[in-house]
Amino acid sequence: xxxxxxxxxxxxxxxxxxxxxxxxxxxxxxxxxxxxxxxxxxxxxxxxxxxxxxxxxxxxxxxxxxxxxxxxxxxxxxxxxxxxxxxxxxxxxxxxxxxxxxxxxxxxxxxxxxxxxxxxxxxxxxxxxxxxxxxxxxxxxxxxxxxxxxxxxxxxx
Length: 157
Description:
The structure is a single chain. α3 packs across α4. α1 links the parallel β1 and β2. Helix content is about 45%, strand content about 20%. It contains five helices and four strands. The chain has a four-stranded mixed sheet with strand order 1-2-4-3, with helices on both faces. The model has no long low-confidence stretch (mean pLDDT about 90). It is of the alpha/beta class.
């Protein structure tokens, strides 16, 4: 299996060790059953850019911390073309502002912990999970915590 993560950062915000999130995304994708050749894009953007994307694609005003755009392109006719899972777009500035309110348990309220949470959250959206109803939200949050426990909190920070 070869999962390729394309990372870019146009946020203008200093995020220490962004390669940790690429590794986290790769491990979590494998854990949720992504097999074969697959691609995913992880992008850090500014508050202005995430606001534009949030308004353009979801019709919501203002900035948000993470957006996911699923593609799930499956190869056809035996061609060796990788599946494209989609894009995870994170705004580190919004994440930094939100991090303290998520402190508790293993989440220490740091930017690093918040971005890890958002990366996993975004990946689960790409896999089809959602949190529109309570049961789905509970299942998604539970899976987030399982993945973070195994591939982030259990690894040296």
